[in-house]
Amino acid sequence: MSTEPQHSAQTGGNDDDAETDDALRERIEQLEGELAELKANADDQKKMTVIATKGTLDMAYPPLILASTAAAFGWDVVVFHTFWGLDILHEEKSKNLKLSAVGNPSMPIPNALAALPGMDSMATKMVKKKIEQNGTATIEELIDVSVESGVELQACQMTMELMEYDEDEFYDGVVSGVGAATALEHMADADIQLFV
After folding, report:
1. Where is this chain compositionally biased, Polar residues type (predicted)?
2. Residue 25: how many other CB atoms lie within 10 Å
């Protein structure tokens, strides 16, 4: 018996094995390239920081709408609430935010009338009624959506102390006791910084 045919079969088998090995190496290189691209894209995640400084009904909506929308796009979002903006995160005060009729150029009444007693309450009731009629989300609903979407709602430590707010008075999911230095770190790396 000759060993030549067996040798040919082994050589042919080695050629098939080499082709399979080459195909596997090529596929591994392709997958490593895709993984590197995914990691690079993860590092390219957009960041947005919003500074919320006002605690009126009309100024509570913009930071929460922008934050929840950016989070829906997969952005890393922080909203730093300071001074009157802290009222947005306060469970009780956020339910009673008012709208100022005085000095608001969009109000359809002159400032002289807007300054009369009760005009702020009337303007607030009108806006709340319109919000309800249109099915617009409430502040509480926007906070819930924001937190569920991964938005970090921060409460300024200095303002908490100044206003004598306790962290238990805020909505669940609010990060309390954040200093300006921590907020600035996110702002420095953010693609978008907004002051509301």
Report:
1. 1-13
2. 10
Q: Are 146 and 153 in contact (CB under 8 A)?
A: yes
Structure tokens at 42: 């993860």
What is the model's pLDDT at position 7? 47
Q: What is the DSSP string of 76-107?
A: EEEEEE-GGGGGGTBTTGGGG-----TT-TTS
> Three-state SS for 161?
helix
The strand ranges marked E within 133-180 are 152-156, 175-178
- b/e per residue, 87-102, with b = 16+ CB within 10 A? bbbbeebbeebbbbbe
Q: Is 166 helix (H, G, I), strand (E, B) or coil?
A: coil
